[in-house]
Design goal:
- The chain is mainly α.
- Helices cover 63% and strands 5% of the residues.
- It has helices spanning 8-16, 27-37, 41-57, 65-76, and strands spanning 24-25, 62-63.
- The protein has a two-stranded parallel ribbon with strand order 1-2.
- It is globular, with a radius of gyration of 12 Å.
């Protein structure tokens, strides 16, 4: 079974709902992450996991567009 890209609203909810009250994504971060992954669920999850782990290691509760840019760069690196 193949799962296609999520629409922007569904992708946004996938990112923000499970983390509500724990980690906050800035709206610009959500928009950039959805755009940068093309809404593909696997890439959204993989990148979000890296972002959440990084925020946790730095004792932060907010993820910004700058964080997303760095994570997407890491994802694109071999």
């Amino acid at each position: 079974m193949e799962v296609g890209p999520l629409d922007p609203v569904a992708a946004s909810e996938l990112l923000t709902r499970p983390l509500a009250g724990v980690i906050q994504f800035d709206q610009e971060a959500v928009d950039r992450l959805v755009d940068g992954t093309g809404g593909r669920p696997y890439l959204l999850q993989k990148t979000a996991l890296a972002l959440v782990q990084g925020a946790h290691e730095q004792s932060r509760r907010r993820i910004t567009a700058t964080d997303v840019e760095a994570a997407l760069d890491d994802l694109a690196s071999p």
